[in-house]
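User:
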Amino acid sequence: MPLPPSPAAEPPRQSTALGILAMTIAVGCLASMGMFIKLVGPDYSPFQATFLRNSVAAAMVVPMILWTGGTAAFKTQNPWGHAARSFTGVLGNASFFQAYALIPLVSVSAVAMSVPIFATLFAIVYLKEKVGIHRWGAIIVGFIGVLVALNPGGNIETGSLFALLGVICWAMTIVMVKRLSATESAFTIVFYYMIAGVLVAGCIMPFVWITPPWEIMRYYLAAGVVGGMGQILMTLAIRLAPASVVIPFEYTAILWAVSYDLLLWGNTPGGTTILGAGIVIVTGLYIARRETRQKEQ
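Assistant: Predicted structure:
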């Protein structure tokens, strides 16, 4: 899939359509990754899952980089930007993996729907974006939706807190990737994240490693494959089209989560989970619409 010649230029309509398609497929891949990690269960460290997932994904990505761009794809103009993005990515992955193991997929997805809300908040600080009263109001309403999805009764599960930490890291990553895309190729961004993920998680392995049987290892391998595909496609989507256009398609993750929960574990989502997710989704769509309208003016 070709990248646009100039990241600063307004993407053509065809690139925007490709970006939407890439994001939709990426969400399906990442939702499937969560399903495989949940099948592994809570007996293994989330950093072990991160290590194996990134190792498998790196084995996929490196040959693709060499085939498409050669060794020039390894060159970077912003090593510290990659370091910061890699740190938030590793921490976010481990947090989500722990959440997947502890609570239903739909509960994780309901909290994860708040990524655009947090991304908007971080864009104010990191990208110096100006936000008016309407978007500030949407952010506040979105946070209320997050609280509802977590548990309005006040008995917030540990898995939900891990999901919230993962959301914060994911939102920071989106903003960082958008900044990195100005000078770095999509494959370079993914490559450095994969390498950092393997190295950072690898340093922890002597303390948490448990050798899994083949029945478990195959889930890790599958998670690595679909996770790598999802990471590449999401990075491409954000580069091919405006983030405000492609990010709303992340909401299709809730459909994957509900389907997997029903088919594999027989779990049905609670009313408060759906209500909270609904509030967050509507808020996120409103934020995306406001951003799009402002860019067109």
